[in-house]
């Protein structure tokens, strides 16, 4: 499905120079005989020269899409979906635990809540529902944000009154502003003697939050997750805000189900399970839902108390049985008419991904080829100079000229990290490493644990896969070992930089 420039020039019977001229016009740089073109570009050029291009099956195929035009009259108020964010140790878990427990005490469930990634509570005063997400690290939340969609309506930003605004608080503020979700501040640990809520408020204002205390719109509640102080007030503030936001969804039978995967896991004896948070429609047993490249014929549904649910409505989190494969947290869920439609959708998505991978591979191969070409040219030049006695004969005794003679050693890396934010940070911090003798080259960076494709690319390019903040799946680890591909994992950026620096210096020829 791809071809080189020289190949295309032969095929079309067009002179190489003419072809590269046209390609340059199209924005391609550093062209060479073996520069690889993807199907689309090759097709476009062939077409210009009057050739009919036949790529075989080219149509995109069927794919499910969310419905943006749900009739107004079907839309009814729905519970808000809330995420708790904040600096480590400021009390996120404590607050979530308090909320979860209080809902059991209220006699709503009468069961022991299980961790399914989200839970609903009924507020003590207004008796309204709120859905809280409690995914560890809020991976799903961040993944959604990355894709430009937001599954959360409201973020409760927890700031400890004895510690005030900290780096992760600022990070969260950045995320919140970017995604445009609504915000409520919970000043936590107000039971503590050394607490200073006023300082927290002032610090937040200094960080661009328009706190109500200073006449702004952002509600602030002084709470204690430990003693429960003002936790009912926090819940009521969420309800007040959600009413202002006028959150609505359709639970009508005619509305196709839409939602998100909050969490997924493989349970022994039960197969793949996933927590689905419904956005539109109501989900029932027997319904077919697609997520990513897998689907489920819903076998049964349970809420966080382990109670069987017959119909799941908007903003309700439920654990769903019946998946063919494990869906991914953060992925969108869409209802299909039948299994045939679900399979068609998955086929289309698989094909699209393969195509995307192919163009990525082409990019990498061109980059590697170019590096090789430059190195060969450099070497040839030096040889030529030597022949004419223009390069010193004693080059090998001089370190600096030796490096020049062979060109810098290129060390290739592929960066994979938990969220795109950290990916950017890593690339930025290691990009400049190296010197004239050894250079670092980042082939690409991406989000999520290493895949088979990453391994293949690392194998062709001899790259090391640098992973940040993630566990490497066992099978990938085994395959990497067999392919002799190095995978390195770190949780601290500083350590990662140190490690890369060490590897780069180890490539230098020792100067004794
Ligand atoms: P997280 O990292 O944000 O989830 O923070 P945790 O909920 O794990 O809380 C960190 C520590 O602060 C724990 O030892 C909690 O017991 C304590 N803590 C949390 N909330 C409060 C509070 O309101 N008052 C007091 N005194 N301690 C709290």
From TrEMBL:
Q: Where is the Tr-type G domain?
A: 77-246
UniProt keyword Mitochondrion present? yes
Gene Ontology cellular-component annotations: mitochondrion
Q: Which family does it belong to?
A: Belongs to the TRAFAC class translation factor GTPase superfamily. Classic translation factor GTPase family. IF-2 subfamily.
Spell out the protein name for this chain. Translation initiation factor IF-2, mitochondrial
**Which stretches are annotated as coiled coil?**
none
Molecular function via GO: GTP binding; GTPase activity; translation initiation factor activity
The function of this protein is: One of the essential components for the initiation of protein synthesis. Protects formylmethionyl-tRNA from spontaneous hydrolysis and promotes its binding to the 30S ribosomal subunits. Also involved in the hydrolysis of GTP during the formation of the 70S ribosomal complex.
Instruction: List keywords of the entry alphabetically.
Output: GTP-binding, Initiation factor, Mitochondrion, Nucleotide-binding, Protein biosynthesis, Transit peptide
Q: Tell me, which GO biological process terms does this entry list?
A: mitochondrial translation
| Species the sequence originates in | Wickerhamomyces mucosus
Cell compartments where the protein resides: Mitochondrion
